[in-house]
């Protein structure tokens, strides 16, 4: 292949991954916007605590449903069409939610938004992993997590901009349609996943799709096609196939990380950062908002760091470093609350631990769950298994946000953060014992790891 066309293919694959990664924006934007919007919706609609819970919880519950819908449809219609559908549904949901005349329509439109987010988060990482060359797959799939963090940050800023506007929440929710529209416009120009094309028997189209995103010449592309075809013993697996020993071994990793990513408490910080910061003794709204913006910025910056390191240092090393930081910072955060909120050094310690916590998450569990969930399953059951991981992740996201405040009532702040810190230690053990190194390997070679693991049992 000539230098020019190689450079062209390299640019294509980056643009393709970045465009599909925009799917993460939908997810991040909603995560970041709802707390601020709710502050205004509650008095406008006269919501009680149950109704507020419904408005917030509608999205993760819809997302569980969306990931379920993606499980078989992503094989039937293809990854790209599903991401497109998710973008369109999100645009409609965002507009309807912004115009909601009452709580019922608001909750229903947020379930619809949730469905779009669920579909997008189940399919986009898989799509990126299927078009990516092995040596930069970690970086490319991490575009998705980067978009999540950018979405959260943008939403914090939008929330701030409309905080004092009458019915500003309508703007906050409605503006989510813009990134979704960008996704819709971008995704139609991308190639379909070559692995999906092979799965549905469209070999020539698969070859053409690979030519668009590979820097190597025709021989290497033929080899890649052969490798995919050899690993593809059945065209589309059933749910029962998830119980095959090699798939089960991979599911332990995917489902395990889906749960641990959430129950180490990331969203207690993302959703409640201003509250946590205020309870460390800072009583000005402005400073606590500033500190939460700090959390949003650090999350983005450290995800960029992860992007650079995941393919060189590897997934396992990043997990060990990041999860150790997660545990340490949670113990320090608990300690800061124990020392007392009125002491300056305790406040500094609390804010420092929050920053360390978010940074550590951003270089490890944040991107690596989505990455592994997209790369460890065999093609025949990939969309079902990745959807199962995604559904689990959203369900635990919902559970943690529901139980955080009651947990503080039960155990105090110190107890709650030490509890999450202890789960961090369990996560460290889990990663050491179960998570394989997948850097630089093709998706088909990753299958072999789990097949050998299952044989060794
Ligand atoms: C998690 C989300 C979280 C976000 C924070 C994602 O990987 O799945 O639950 O809000 O990271 O950056």
Task: List the helices and strands in order.
Answer: HHHHHHHHHHHHHHHHHHH
Instruction: Report the biggest beta sheet as strand number plus sense, adding barrel if it closes.
Output: none
Mean pLDDT, to the nearest integer, reads 91
Helix content: over 70%
Q: At the third CATH level, what is the topology name?
A: Growth Hormone, Chain: A
Give the CATH level 1 class: Mainly Alpha
Structure report:
By secondary structure, the protein is an all-alpha fold. It has one domain (10-456): Growth Hormone, Chain: A (Up-down Bundle), CATH 1.20.1250. 83% of the residues lie in helices and 0% in strands. It is built from 19 helices and no strands. It has helices spanning 3-21, 23-45, 49-76, 79-99, 103-131, 137-161, 168-174, 177-187, 194-199, 203-213, 218-231, 245-263, 266-278, 285-313, 315-339, 344-362, 365-375, 379-434, 443-456. α1 (3-21) runs antiparallel to α5. The model has no long low-confidence stretch (mean pLDDT 91). The structure holds beta-D-glucopyranose (BGC). Beta-D-glucopyranose is lined by residues 31, 145, 148-149, 152, 261, 266-267, 270, 299, 366, 393, 397.
Brief digest:
The protein has 457 residues and is an all-alpha fold. The protein has 19 helices and no strands.
Write the layout of secondary structure elements.
Blueprint: H1 3-21, H2 23-45, H3 49-76, H4 79-99, H5 103-131, H6 137-161, H7 168-174, H8 177-187, H9 194-199, H10 203-213, H11 218-231, H12 245-263, H13 266-278, H14 285-313, H15 315-339, H16 344-362, H17 365-375, H18 379-434, H19 443-456
